[in-house]
Amino acid sequence: MLEADIVLGTLVSGSGDLFPIMGHPPANTSDISLAQFIAFVEEGIKGGGKRKGVKLDFKTTEVFKASLPMNFPVMLNADILQGPIESKRTPVDADAFLYACRTIFPDATLSVGWTSLYGSDEGAENPNDVPEDLTFYNSDNVMDMMDALRRNSVNQTLTFPVRAGIAARSLRDLPALLEQQGSSFTLWSAKDDPVDVEDLKKLIEIVGKRRVYIDVPDSLRKQLTSSGRPLLGSASMALLAVIASMVLLR
């Protein structure tokens, strides 16, 4: 799978105009634009290469709007709500994102989550030094997400990207999100995030491995085993298909 972060910025050798480029904040210059990236993937597939999965991660509302329209099947990912552990990063506007997804991409799979400040993130505190009620996805986080989906009449296939280290602390409230029909969790983690593996296993067991996908470092993935057998199914990563039709792997 190709994972692509998209920001509004300029090309190194360009005119200085702002448009969607490949990059991760705080970078705002790149040597490749979103349009060039998609063309590269298309060319590889047409040339007989393997079909690629691509996850498009829009970092701001502005770059999402500037990336429209798209003429290929997509899974669209954005942090649309403020998350736990005092995250200061501004989320993508939930209503603007979900409205555009529903009206422009009615067949897309949506990946919608929360901002977070955790682990190796710059400015992150040790979770043990943060008030306990701020160290997990709580009922308010869950209700805010459900309200946003309901308010925007979302009925598309959903996956909720949740940070593994925080999700492992959230066994009480997080499973309620999967009351949404056709929904799943995508567990993700930065390289040096502290994760309680045993509690994370409990979460996977509670919601069922068929409704969990992973996007974590190999070291964590290898720990997610039970009795020597993989705790997760072989189709453990949600993919976005470019050119060909995409369905969420089950």
Please explain how this structure is put together:
- The protein has 250 residues and is α/β, with parallel strands linked by helices.
- It has helices at residues 34-46, 61-66, 94-104, 139-151, 164-167, 197-207, 218-223, and strands at residues 2-11, 19-22, 29-30, 54-58, 75-81, 109-114, 158-163, 183-188, 212-215, 225-226, 229-230.
- The strands form 2 sheets. Strands 1, 2, 3, 4, 5, 6, 7, 8 and 9 form a 9-stranded mixed β-sheet that branches. A two-stranded antiparallel sheet has the order 10-11.
- The longest helix is centred in the N-terminal third of the chain and has 13 residues, at 34-46.
- It is globular.
- Residues 233-250 have low confidence and may be disordered.
Can you tag this structure with a few keywords?
two-stranded antiparallel sheet, 250 residues, alpha/beta, 22% strand, nine-stranded mixed beta sheet, disordered C terminus, 7 helices, single chain, TIM Barrel
What name is given to the CATH topology? Answer: TIM Barrel
CATH top level is: Alpha Beta
Structural class: alpha/beta
Roughly what percent helix?
25-40%
Overall mean pLDDT stands at: 81
Regions with little confidence, pLDDT below 50 for 5+ residues: 233-250
Strand % is 15-25%
Could you give a short description of this structure?
The protein is α/β, with parallel strands linked by helices and 250 residues long.
